[in-house]
């Protein structure tokens, strides 16, 4: 089966793989949106919870699709923005007190401008844009669900390297590989190696397989967690995964799964205004910390996270 797939890959039009200097073009001023993170804590105990801490991921910056314009929040006793490791994005940390036998809700508002984008083939010339620091080595290494050192994935990577000569053409072939190999099926997260062996998966497997092949060829790549709001505007957690690959000094967004349906408008370095990218590298979306002793109290404490996207930058 693998060699049958490889034969199909060789028949793909070479015009898809022209290699040039890549730059990003955004379309218009973009759409102003607000991503609202709503945190609800129900303290069912007889004592107040003093100094409860909640952490929430911040929509990523440095992405072709979006810019983060402002962060607003309800009144709390402490609010601080911090960074994940490995350039995976930022998160905010909130702290406040929760009275006994009460429910407390706090909201964080992320004002985001989302634009369509398309990499073009014009060389902007030196000095026209600032290149970021080279990616960390972690984005070249195998990881959970990204088994870039497995023989099956290395075999695919080596075949692509033999078939195409430029970096862009190799990566575009890697982008097309999940579309050729995987039959879409919603499922629990299984990862790249499972996708190769079972030939099925959902958006997570499409992204993981692309990232694994890219890393096996020596190109830094990482997964992204996103809110895809083509139908719904309310979420319990991110509902989509895609990827980024580092090419010619910049991170290129790649969505092999949504590229199956051209109406979405997403693909290799091409995107519309239907997503908010929350974080990278599969870091947590939210976490929390109770003060010592809360778990030993009688009565329950419940935590709920809810996300919604507003069409204008406002409050609820």
Helix % is 10-25%
Identify the overall geometry.
Answer: elongated
Rounded radius of gyration (Å): 21 Å
Structural class: alpha+beta
Give the strand tally: 16
Q: Estimate what percentage of residues fall within beta strands.
A: 35-45%
Q: What order do the SSEs take from the amino end to the carboxyl end, as H and E? A: HEEEEEEHHEHEHEEEEEEEE
- Biggest pleated sheet: 6 strands, antiparallel
Low-confidence blocks of residues: 1-8, 10-21, 122-130
Compute the average pLDDT: 89
Distance between the termini: 53 Å
- Alpha plus pi helix count: 5
Overall description:
The protein is α+β, with helices and mostly antiparallel strands and 316 residues long. Helices cover 18% and strands 38% of the residues. It has helices spanning 2-10, 151-163, 167-181, 192-198, 203-216; strands at 23-43, 49-57, 66-73, 78-83, 90-98, 102-120, 183-184, 200-201, 221-228, 234-235, 240-247, 250-254, 270-271, 275-280, 286-289, 301-310. Strands 1, 3, 6, 10, 13 and 16 form a six-stranded antiparallel sheet that branches. The longest helix has 15 residues, at 167-181. It is elongated. The N and C termini lie far apart (53 Å). The relative contact order is 0.23.
Quick overview:
This protein has 316 residues and is of the alpha+beta class.
Write the layout of secondary structure elements.
Blueprint: H1 2-10, E1 23-43, E2 49-57, E3 66-73, E4 78-83, E5 90-98, E6 102-120, H2 151-163, H3 167-181, E7 183-184, H4 192-198, E8 200-201, H5 203-216, E9 221-228, E10 234-235, E11 240-247, E12 250-254, E13 270-271, E14 275-280, E15 286-289, E16 301-310
Parallel strand pairs: 7-8
Antiparallel strand pairs: 1-6, 1-16, 2-5, 2-15, 3-6, 4-5, 6-13, 9-11, 9-14, 10-16, 11-12
């Amino acid at each position: 089966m693998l060699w049958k797939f490889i034969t199909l890959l060789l028949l793909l039009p070479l015009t898809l793989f022209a290699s040039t200097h890549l730059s990003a073009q955004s379309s218009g001023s973009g759409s102003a949106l607000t991503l609202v993170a709503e945190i609800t804590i129900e303290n069912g105990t007889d004592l107040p919870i003093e100094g409860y801490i909640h952490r929430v991921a911040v929509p990523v910056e440095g992405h072709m699709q979006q810019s983060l314009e402002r962060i607003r929040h309800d009144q709390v006793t402490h609010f601080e923005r911090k960074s994940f490791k490995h350039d995976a994005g930022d998160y905010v940390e909130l702290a406040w007190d929760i009275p006994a036998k009460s429910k407390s809700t706090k909201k964080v508002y992320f004002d985001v401008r989302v634009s369509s984008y398309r990499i073009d083939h014009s060389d902007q010339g030196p000095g026209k844009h600032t290149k970021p620091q080279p990616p960390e080595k972690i984005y070249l290494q195998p990881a959970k669900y990204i088994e870039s050192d497995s023989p099956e994935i290395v075999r695919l990577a080596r075949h692509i390297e033999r078939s195409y000569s430029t970096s862009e053409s190799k990566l575009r072939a890697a982008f097309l590989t999940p579309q050729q190999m995987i039959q879409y099926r919603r499922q629990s997260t299984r990862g790249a190696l499972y996708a190769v062996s079972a030939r099925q998966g959902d958006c997570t497997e499409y992204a993981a397989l692309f990232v694994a092949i890219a890393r096996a060829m020596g190109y830094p790549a990482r997964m992204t967690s996103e809110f895809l709001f083509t139908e719904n505007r309310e979420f319990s957690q991110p509902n989509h995964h895609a990827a980024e690959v580092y090419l010619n000094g910049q991170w290129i967004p790649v969505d092999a799964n949504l590229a199956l349906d051209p109406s979405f408008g997403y693909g290799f370095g091409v995107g519309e205004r239907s997503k908010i990218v929350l974080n990278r590298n599969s870091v947590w979306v939210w976490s929390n910390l109770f003060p010592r002793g809360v778990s030993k109290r009688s009565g329950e404490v419940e935590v709920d996270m809810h996300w919604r996207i507003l069409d204008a930058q406002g409050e609820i």
